[in-house]
Amino acid sequence: MKKDIERHVFNSLKEQYLFQDLPTDLIDDQTDFTIHNIRDIHPVLPYTSIVYRVNFFSFVFVKSGTGRYTTDEQIYTTQPGTIYFTNPGHFKSFEWQELDEVYLKLFSIKKPLLYSRRFLSDFRMGGILLLSVPEERWFNTQ
User: Fold this and answer.
1) Closest by alpha carbon to 126, among 82, 90, 94?
2) pTM over 0.85
3) What local confidence, expressed as pLDDT, does residue 73 receive?
């Protein structure tokens, strides 16, 4: 992300989607928790987002899709098996070339479970947890 790019800050997913002229009918603004398939939001591909910061936690699981995710000028490839988590306060953007099953979960910063001392210390420094999980282990509970 270049320094001269305009960066936007959003306090809710609905606020972010309204600004970007994206559909908001899947968002219940009466709850602090949201989950949906990103394919339902971005039917036209490829898609490149604006550079933005949110004041909530986000968790993305890529079951079937490809793209790139950028946070604080670090670029990550997203592909099947990618899981990433970011906490509030980081500037980010993303690009999607393919979207079939890519799930977005959001938690507001008001959720007490997310404010445990251990949780915050794990994510305060880097702000992102990025995992690549082999497909054969996606739903293996053993």
Assistant:
1) 90
2) no
3) 85
